[in-house]
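Translate sequence into structure tokens.
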Amino acid sequence: MGTQQALAKVNLALDILGARPDGYHELRMVMQTVSLHDTVSVQETEGDFTLHVDGESFRPGETSMEERAAEAFFRAVGRSMPGISVTLKKRIPAYAGLGGGSADVAAVLRSLRQQYCPDMPEAELERIGLTVGSDVPFCIRGGTALAAGRGERLTDLPPLPPCWLVLCKPSFGIPTPELFALADTRQYLRRPDIEGMHLALRQGYLEGIAAKLCNVFEELLPPQYKEVFVIKERLLTLGALNASMSGSGPTVFGIFRSQETAERAAQALEREYTKTYLAEPVGKFQV
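Result follows.
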């Protein structure tokens, strides 16, 4: 069935509009795929579903997201699931706000569609992905998009102009449910200007896009996560046009116009943070 890249995402803008009756939160985000990626191989085999991560068999206490996605896909196409072997080579850090797990699931679904149901509309594949995770529909589509609802209502936006991104994850993770619980008790001092960002994207004005970076989760961070703001300041000092946390963190990314400046910044940060990555924006998948 072949091999696919599972691309990470960053949030150029993230706003929380409130809690929903279904237990989720209403979001409004501008999302962007970037070149940092895992490698996902999917093969039909005899026997049951198997998952191998970086050379080790995955035997979790519950069904993996990849297996749930495969089961949902074959239910949707009305056939029993054959033996499927999924192999992941991970590079996107886990629990980082970069959508690595969702990207892997999206790559599995794209592979299954290519092999078993190439005429399946993109919207149907995204619907299947939503049953596994809120970020999966965007990770199936990729590119630059406005995401609403849980993140599944997607509108394609003009692409991010050519630039470089430096992504830096500190050593800790941040529990997403903890931040969403805080979101229900807070009023935000600053919210994203998504219309302004859309205008800057239409104009291809990189400095204008960078100026509109905003993630309301940053206002919710407890004091023990202050390293996020230290990294933001470092990126600005090292020449980023602007910097922001991605998703519920803790990864921070900076946008750079110059490859040379971005490379120097990544090298400087790598001395303190091993999970530092240089990336470029990537356009929409052709599924």
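Note: The mean pLDDT is 94.
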